[in-house]
Design goal:
The chain has 4 helices and no strands. It is mostly helical.
């Protein structure tokens, strides 16, 4: 049986403080008008926060093997779902919208 790595409490406290600081930065950036930059910065900060949670709170920084493999496979499936969903959303305009079986209103208006 493999022994578990004992993580100091200081690591958890520093990670928590970093998450709080990043939360403040995210909130602060939301009040600054940067156009598309707001979304990009928010996504980068969210990615960094995700990495902190995964590495330290979920112990991926210290664990090897099957946990990292499970995480990688989970990311692969997430990527597949995002790509397939995006393919559906971005190709909806390729087919025309059906008009239906009702009468054509432009023919019922009569002469002008």
């Amino acid at each position: 049986m493999a022994s578990a790595k004992i993580v100091p409490v200081r690591t958890y406290i520093l990670t928590f403080i970093a998450l709080l600081v990043l939360l403040g930065v995210t909130t602060g950036v939301a009040y600054i008008h940067l156009g598309i930059g707001n979304t990009v910065i928010a996504l980068v900060i969210a990615f960094v926060k995700m990495l902190l949670v995964l590495l330290f709170f979920m112990h991926l920084f210290y664990d090897k093997g099957i946990k990292r493999l499970a995480f990688a496979v989970g990311l692969l499936w997430l990527a597949i779902l995002i790509v397939l969903s995006s393919a559906d959303v971005f190709t909806r305009h390729w087919t025309p919208v059906p008009r239906g079986w009702g009468p054509d209103i432009s023919l019922q208006q009569g002469p002008k």
